[in-house]
Specification:
With 155 residues, the protein is an alpha+beta fold. It has one domain: Gcn5-related N-acetyltransferase (GNAT) (Aminopeptidase), CATH 3.40.630.30. 34% of the residues lie in helices and 27% in strands. It has four helices and five strands, in the order βααβββαβα. Strands 1-2-3-4-5 form a five-stranded mixed β-sheet. α1 packs across α2. The longest helix is centred in the first third of the chain and has 16 residues. It is globular. GO terms for molecular function: acyltransferase activity, transferring groups other than amino-acyl groups. Pfam families: Acetyltransf_1. One of its GO terms (cellular component) is ribosome. This is Ribosomal protein S18 acetylase RimI-like enzyme.
Length: 155
């Protein structure tokens, strides 16, 4: 089995990130995202580093997965939560340790920073496989419910 390596995403990865996000939205929510809007959203992360950063997992030298880290300031803890978002592993690379390698890479980076207080992510209630994966990596379910009020339609 080839090794999974992690690297910082660059602007050259925008199309992979767009397609990965579109595939994830379709697979998890049967949601067809507007590719042009999605491309603008992905590119905006590279335009403004305060928005976050992407990591790319490669397997056998080919992009096999990705995730986005965004920031949430905690005044209570005087530091940032890193939110893991836009997680996707291409179907051919699933069950090869791609997400676990991505997660461990991000966790190590977070632990090495004095400003990061922890990692968070959200997962659909029905996605039990993902929940088991996150628990196996040492994450625990929070006691919060998430609420939102959107202002922009998807699609």
């Amino acid at each position: 089995m080839s090794e999974v390596t992690i690297r910082a995403a660059t602007r050259a990865d925008v199309e992979f990130l767009v397609e990965a996000n579109a595939a994830m939205a379709w697979e998890t929510e049967s949601l067809a995202l507007d590719r042009e809007r999605l491309r603008r959203g992905v590119t905006a992360v590279f335009d403004e580093p305060r928005r976050g950063f992407y990591r790319i997992a490669e397997h056998a030298g080919v992009a096999a997965g990705c995730l986005l880290i965004t920031y949430e300031w905690s005044d209570w803890r005087d530091g940032d939560w890193w939110w893991i978002q836009s997680v996707y592993v291409v179907p051919a690379a699933r069950r090869l340790g791609v997400f676990g390698t991505l997660y461990r890479h991000v966790e190590a980076a977070a632990r090495s920073s004095e400003r990061v207080i922890g990692l968070r992510l959200y997962v659909e209630w029905e996605n039990e496989r993902a929940q088991r994966t996150y628990a196996a990596l040492g994450m625990s379910q929070e006691h919060y419910h998430m609420y939102s009020r959107g202002f922009v339609a998807f699609g």
